[in-house]
């Protein structure tokens, strides 16, 4: 079994999908002719079915939770960064009272975790990692990318952050201090990257188009006006 | 020697793979099942972490991210008596019989 190669299994506990002669659902996206089920996937699906059958959770409840992930996207964080770039009062409030400001802006932090907002400047570059697992401000950036959860990033972000940044295309000046911050389940970080030059007079909406996910993790610079 | 999940600063030359894998449905389901169990007060994020961090080191190293999550959810649900190992075994086997096995 190769890792990560699983297929949709029609795991919905109620048999509400059309099935072909072999009992396989055929109207569900992702189903493949030769679909097979790995050990861990089968146990995951088994747990879900059993939990619904026992009434521990409701049918459809997990689907609803899955659909709510579509609201957690990097443009949420980009909106906050663009506003902080444009509005000095908002910037101060976001830095000094980050969680309240995030909530006021309409975003719900995961498991009520605290959040710290860090600003990159010409002197200091912040870069975020979760060395123990994958803690991340999902309300503002969506689910963490695979590389953020990888063993290599979790390890190397600590020992060679400049090299990592350079692999992401960011060559820092030697006199810029690098601060690597380690997230945990109770505390998440959002980085305000440096505002690109040549954006004077830009609207918040225009600025937000420059703010990439990776720049808010602190591993990369935002886009520049010529590269949107 | 740090625990297996404590990766910060572990020596490695492994490049950072920036390719995003395509999520399988069971991975999305696992991620959101955890959320639902949390909302219902059955399992919180600290229990998820404890379950992940107690995975056998060799298994931790060879598992994918959501395989570790799912293994932890199973550990906690069995520990709390919400589900039994035997019924998960039985149902998982039935699903695999229906769907076939990875070659």
Polypeptide structure, described:
- By secondary structure, chain A is α/β, with parallel strands linked by helices.
- Chain A contains eleven helices and four strands, in the order αααααββααααββαα.
- In chain A, helix 3 crosses helix 4 (88-96) and helix 4 (88-96) crosses helix 5.
- Chain B has one domain (25-99): Orthogonal Bundle (Cyclin A, domain 1), CATH 1.10.472.
- Helix content of chain B is 58%, strand content 0%.
- Chain B has five helices and no strands.
- The chains are: A alpha/beta (228), B mainly alpha (103).
- Chains A and B meet through helix 1, helix 2, helix 7 and helix 8 of A and helix 1, helix 2, helix 4 and helix 5 of B.
Helix/strand structural class of chain A:
alpha/beta
Helix content of chain B: 55-70%
Distance from N terminus to C terminus of chain A (CA atoms, Å) equals 41 Å
CATH topology of chain B: Cyclin A, domain 1
User: Tell me about the biggest sheet of chain B?
Assistant: none
What is the approximate shape of chain A? Answer: globular
CATH structural architecture of chain B? Orthogonal Bundle
Terminal CA distance of chain B: 37 Å
The total count of helices of chain B amounts to 5
Task: List the topology elements.
The complex is a heterodimer of chains A (228) and B (103).
Chain A: H1 39-53, H2 61-68, H3 74-86, H4 88-96, H5 98-104, E1 114-119, E2 124-129, H6 138-141, H7 146-149, H8 151-159, H9 161-167, E3 177-182, E4 187-192, H10 204-208, H11 213-217
Parallel strand pairs in A: 1-4, 2-3
Helix pairs in contact in A: 3-4, 4-5
Chain B: H1 25-39, H2 45-53, H3 57-62, H4 65-79, H5 85-99
Helix pairs in contact in B: 1-4, 2-4
